[in-house]
């Protein structure tokens, strides 16, 4: 991608920018943490990875650069926190700016609607009877996995 990252908002555009194979990563970008997830090279299933505590953007980018290299990721799916009516909020704009600032990674990025991700994983963890402390420690990486899986499901029709 020659130092520039495509930022797509449609699965087809993202799929066209990806190499024929390779793993993808998912990001749930919060104000204090970034939840991380990965998928298999066949884009079948997403798995939670870990959480990065946010500090300065340069430190966040360095941590993401290490993770992307270690996992040999071909692209990233970034959760986009839209309002319930689908419009942007100040948080949405912050995540869009964060995604633009990931250009040094030189990876295609897909901004993916994450409106229900945290609520869905919270419900699942409550159903598993996890304590609040256990839920708090897992929610970001599980939300990243939920976001990535939603994108994988949409991408499956573009990858043959």
Q: Label the CATH architecture.
A: 2-Layer Sandwich
Q: Give the count of helical stretches.
A: 5
Note poorly predicted spans: none
What is the number of beta strands?
6
Main β-sheet description:
6 strands, mixed
Give the overall average pLDDT. Answer: 87
CATH class: Alpha Beta
> Portion of residues in helices?
40-55%
Quaternary status of these chains? single chain
Radius of gyration: 15 Å
How far is the first residue's CA from the last residue's CA? 22 Å
Task: Give the domain tally.
Answer: 1
Architecture overview:
The protein is of the alpha/beta class and 160 residues long. The chain has one domain: 2-Layer Sandwich (Nucleotidyltransferase, domain 5), CATH 3.30.420.140. It is 42% helix and 23% strand. The chain contains five helices and six strands, in the order βαβββαβαβαα. It has helices spanning 11-17, 57-71, 90-100, 117-127, 132-155; strands at residues 7-8, 23-29, 33-39, 46-53, 73-80, 109-113. Strands 1-6-5-2-3-4 form a six-stranded mixed β-sheet, sandwiched between helices. β2 (23-29) and β3 form a beta hairpin. α4 crosses α5.
């Amino acid at each position: 991608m020659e130092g520039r990252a495509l930022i797509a908002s449609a699965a087809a555009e993202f799929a066209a920018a990806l190499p024929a194979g390779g793993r993808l990563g998912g990001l749930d970008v919060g104000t204090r943490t970034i939840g991380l997830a990965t998928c298999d090279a066949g884009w079948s299933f997403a798995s939670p990875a870990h959480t990065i505590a946010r500090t300065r953007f340069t430190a966040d980018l360095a941590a993401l650069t290490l993770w992307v290299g270690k996992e040999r990721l071909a692209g990233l799916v970034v959760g986009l926190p839209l309002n319930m009516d689908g419009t942007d909020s100040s948080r949405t704009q912050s995540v869009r700016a964060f995604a633009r600032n990931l250009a040094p990674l030189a990876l295609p990025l897909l901004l993916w609607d994450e409106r229900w991700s945290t609520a869905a994983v919270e419900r699942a963890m409550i159903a598993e009877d996890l304590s609040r402390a256990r839920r708090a420690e897992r929610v970001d990486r599980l939300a990243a996995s939920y976001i990535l899986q939603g994108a994988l499901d949409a991408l499956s029709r573009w990858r043959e």
